[in-house]
Amino acid sequence: MDKFLIEGPCKIRGEVLVSGSKNASLPILASTLLFDQPVIIQNLPKVKDIDTMLNLLKSLGSNIVLSKDKKTAKITNKKNMKTFASYSLVKTMRGSILVLGPLVAKYHKSKTSLPGGCLIGARPVNYHLAALKKLGMNYQIKDGYILAKSKGKLKGTIINFPNISVGATENSIIAACLAKGKTILRNCAIEPEIKDLTKFLNSAGAKIKWSGRTCEITGVNYLNQTKYSVMADRIEAGTFCIAATLTKGHLEIKNLDPRVINTELKLLKKAGAKIKTNIDKILIQGPKKIKSIGNIKTKEWPGISTDMQAQLMVLMCKASGKSSITENIFENRFMHVAELQRLGAKIIINNNKALIQGNTNFIGAELMSSDLRASVALVLAALVSDGRSYINRIYHLDRGYEKIENKLKKIGVSIKRLK
Ligand code: EPZ
């Protein structure tokens, strides 16, 4: 298994080109199952999870032609596609559950594996199933699979999500596109990736309208061919902004609409970073002294993203003064804490709240990745540790960050991937 060797401390400077968003690409790719016509998706990130989703679509019968740089996919579905999403594929990438909605909407049946949990939590899909059931999907769970079917087309209806869920909102919007009549979804997640999904679907003739957390979808009979470029990855951009703030560095982050990480940029300004933005660029200068941001609480968009929590924790370890982080989205998303403590971090966990002592000195060590965002937090910590750090199991990183070592090398980080 590959690992990273990082020599710290370092100061980063230069510019970073942000890749396409993994969390926008996954639902957009899954929704191509609704199409009879060829559809072209551009600006895909070259990350493991996208490969997995493309392989899943191929296993269902999609013909996929990739551009040389693997960032553009031309997807053409067969007349009658398979509707079996196997455990072997779904277990490696939970986002595969997003094929359930389109398969039932288009083919009126599907055998899709339950995704199972992951390290950050049980990750149930009950909101997905309840919403699709209300649209007319009948299902039973057998041997870890969802055996789903519908009597002909799904039927538009009113759905109130009991809690906000990104995936359940996406599955329902995709399924409702081909349902008969109008669907109104209330208490939706409104992350930018979901808006990117609905912009993509509307570009193909879907009829989706938003007002606050309410989404209204008027079913259509088919979707037209379209070409669409996926939005930039706001979590990758936010991660690099934290890296610049941490290392007192200077970075220019390009081709991203800064509004998608406005909340996080406000936090970094509070920590002392100097930030200038224009429509598709962020200029950030890290402060000499990092100030504590106080009590950070993760929340659904437009709150502080849970996918930035681990990275912000590293920053707070280096801030002058105490701070706390409360994780409100996932039940077990503090795996990075034990690893940071090996570097010298002083953090106490109280249920879903971490109390962080600032001004800690990090000494390089052997570290173990756990989930995608915890792994990148370890990379950030290694940047500001004295001496060598080895980060093991970086396949977690490869799932969501496109060749991160190349991007880091270009901005002055001494990093090597060891086979
Ligand atoms: C999406 O996961 C993202 N993944 C996650 O990013 C992100 O952390 C999360 O949204 C929150 O923003 C993708 O977009 C592929 P949820 P998702 O449904 O859709 C509970 C990353 O690092 N829940 O909003 O699974 C759930 O357990 C990943 O890129 C139910 O109880 O998130 C969680 O506690 C990690 N029942 C909370 O809701 C359900 O049916 C939020 O989950 C669905 C969710």
End-to-end C-alpha gap: 7 Å
The description of the largest β-sheet is: 5 strands, mixed
Instruction: Assign an overall shape.
Output: globular
Mean pLDDT: 96
What does this structure look like?
- This protein is α/β, with parallel strands linked by helices.
- It folds into two domains: 3-19 and 232-418, UDP-n-acetylglucosamine1-carboxyvinyl-transferase, Chain (Alpha-beta prism); 22-229, UDP-n-acetylglucosamine1-carboxyvinyl-transferase, Chain, CATH 3.65.10.10.
- The chain is built from 14 helices and 25 strands.
- Strands 1, 22, 23, 24 and 25 form a five-stranded mixed sheet that branches.
- The longest helix has 13 residues, at 48-60.
- The chain is globular, with a radius of gyration of 21 Å.
- The termini are close together.
- The chain binds ligand EPZ.
Attribute tags:
419 residues; alpha/beta; UDP-n-acetylglucosamine1-carboxyvinyl-transferase, Chain; 2 domains; binds ligand EPZ
